[in-house]
Amino acid sequence: MFSPTVSTGVAQQFGAILVGSLCNSVLPFRLGELVRADVLAQSTSTSFSFSFVLVVLERAVDALVMCLMLAVFGRLSLPLLIVAAILFFVLLSLWSSPLWLKHLFFYVAEALERGRGSRMLFRVWSVEYGLQRTLVSRVLLPYVGLSVLNWVVYIVALLPLFFAGAGMGLIDAVGSSVATYAALNASVAPGALGSFTPTLAAFGLFDSTMYIMAWCAAIVPTCILGLIWAFVGMDGIPLFRPKRESVGIAPANKLTRDADPSASQGAFLRDYYAGVPLAAEISRDDMEGTASLGRYFTGGGSAAVTYLSERDGRLWVTKRVDLQKSQALREQHEWLVKHACANVAIAGGEREDDSTYSMDVGFDPNSVDGFDWVHQCSVEQACVFMDEVASTLAGEVWLRDAEVEAIDPAEGAQRVESYINTHVRHCMQLAVDSMPALSEAMLPDSLVINGIVRPNLNRLLDELEGNESAMLDLADFRLCSDIHGDPIVDNLLWSRGGGHPVIIDPVPCGNVFDGPVFDFGKWSQSLQIGYEFALRDTSEVRLRPDSDGVLRVIEYADMRSERYEELWEHVQDVLAPKYLTSSEQKTMLFIGATNYFRRMKHQVLQCPANALKFYALGIEHLDEWMEMYR
């Protein structure tokens, strides 16, 4: 039964059986099964949970066979049949957990581990993972054949005892052999003759000599061999040895003991047991062996889930989405193929099934997240990093097909209105629909944000649309055939091996301001306003009443780094004048601020506790931008 996950030898299995039988003989309640499972787990470096479930499965099959054979000899044990039925029901539930059971596992794990239930959830998931790979015909058919052979060998071994030694008939001898095994399994402490004999008597054997003979045949040889194996064949029996915390990529074999994949897959496990359909699809692929889950990423502004997987011996970052919502992901894949170069992530294959679409992006284990890199390297290196990204976007994206062109004033004004209605008003309405409590923050005419009174969103938008100079500056930008659409620091990597940046996760369509100014506006959102810090700080932010009892006070921890300030100064003083016009430079903060409202429709779903912080950041910086025109 181990074969789909790990290779085991006869010596490993036989030794585990001997030690388990030894412990069953001297410990109550069949605790030797736990020892056997641990011996197997340690000798094969696999999960104890999965090893134990396979032992339980074997015992469940034994119980069912015993019930059938005892029934043939007129000695059916109803308690044994009930135990077998319960065991099979539990195993079936673990093999294909219904949604209600997944939810139960989730809530129990979260409660017991106080919000850190990934390890317990992983143990449950690893059992399901193992059973899904084990309970298939190519494994079960040989198992059934070997189980039958095992019973034949067992009965033949005991026949001389009952058939020749006790002078029984063949039928009675076979029945007594089965009854002896049933007594061993049914006894609370089978090693104690006083416990073994009444159980054996319940199966119709009453000869005291037979009690002793059966007990000796069943207990003594395995105890002797078990002791020899325990001291010679293994280094002790340390139960439940803790796993090491995994670092980096989780192992392909989720049943390994060499690392703890739950440390890197907590988000996946929570999604899976919370019933997220895409997480179930990822789990199915992993269980079927078509792709091995490594890391599972959360956040982002799309409906896709992103995870690291191994396929065909290579690591890929895979993005997967419901088929109906696949257009944006298809556009992203097309963009990566079109703009392929050293500083752009490698586009892999695309796949589509009845319900999902997925795409692969090449993964470099030597790469570093842009957020980590700019805080690790010197300020000069960080500035060069941004210079190379801007140069790549200019040469491979903005200027790839043609020069950027000034927009017609009428079209520019129309795009500004479209942007405000689509990415501010509409996104906020979607956010309120998902989180009705958010509407309370939009009601007052003004908000008090970190002690400063600011006009609220509706008042700011009215002021903006009534300010001719502001609207003219926004409408005066240049169009180009393509942009990245989201070059925030979290969407940049640094390749240590190649010594160059790697650009990932484009959002080329639906941005309205389709020109270099929009990509620079995303840098305002990231570096000037601190988007990555806002994402990483998930502490709760609430709307509180002011001294007059009006709900309009928002306070949050404004977290930005000195390095971000230095990089923003470089973007503002060096890169923006090089690539943008004067009116476009004025527009950067507007785009940066309003992208926080655009983010709200995702934030209220992914982390509602801090959604008000994103709303407050948008208000603050849109108000600061409006200061230029007051």
Explain what the structure shows:
This protein has helices at about 10-25, 30-45, 50-70, 80-95, 100-110, 120-135, 135-165, 170-185, 195-200, 210-235, 265-275, 275-290, 325-340, 370-375, 380-400, 410-435, 440, 455-465, 470-475, 515-530, 530-535, 560-580, 580-605, 610-625, and strands at about 290-295, 305-310, 315-320, 345-350, 355-360, 365-370, 405, 445-450, 450-455, 480, 490-495, 500-505, 545, 550-555. It is α+β, with helices and mostly antiparallel strands. It folds into three domains: about 10-235, no CATH class; about 275-365, Phosphorylase Kinase, domain 1 (2-Layer Sandwich); about 385-630, no CATH class. It has a five-stranded antiparallel sheet, sandwiched between helices. Strands 9-8-14-13 form a four-stranded mixed sheet. Residues about 235-245 have low confidence and may be disordered.
Mean pLDDT: 85
Question: Radius of gyration, Cα only, in angstroms?
Answer: 33 Å
**Distance between the first and last residues' Cα:** 75 Å
Percent range for β-strand residues: 5-15%
Q: Count the strands?
A: 14
What is the count of structural domains? 3
Structural class of the helix and strand makeup? Answer: alpha+beta
- The count of helical stretches stands at 24
Shape: elongated
Contiguous low-pLDDT stretches (5 residues minimum) are: 236-247
Major sheet attributes: 5 strands, antiparallel
* Helical content (DSSP H or I, runs of 4+): 55-70%
With strands numbered from the N-terminus, the spatial order across the biggest sheet is 1-2-3-5-4
